[in-house]
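call fold(seq) -> C-alpha cells
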Amino acid sequence: MQLIDTRVTQAGDIFTVEFLGEGGESISVKIDNSHGELDDTTAIDHAKVMMVQLTAFAGGGADGSINRYDALSNGNFDEGSKG
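ret:
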C-alpha cells in the first residue's frame, strides 16, 4: 500500500487513525484515549506501533503468514507481473 494520507478523528474517548492508500485501500486503528494522554500526533505514532506489532506477531502459522495466499506468495505484487 502506497500511503497518501493519514486522517485522525476523535469521538468521545476513541481516536480513529486512518491510513489511506493510493489505490483506495485504507487501514483504520481505533485507540482508547479515556486517560486523555493522546493528541493527533501521538495517536498516529501509537497506531503505527500497533501495526508493526500486528505484522510481527500476526498469523497462526509458524512462518508468520496471515493467510494461505500470503504464505504461498513470492511477494511480487507489481501489476502485470508474470512471477
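The CA atoms of residues 10 and 57 lie 28 Å apart.
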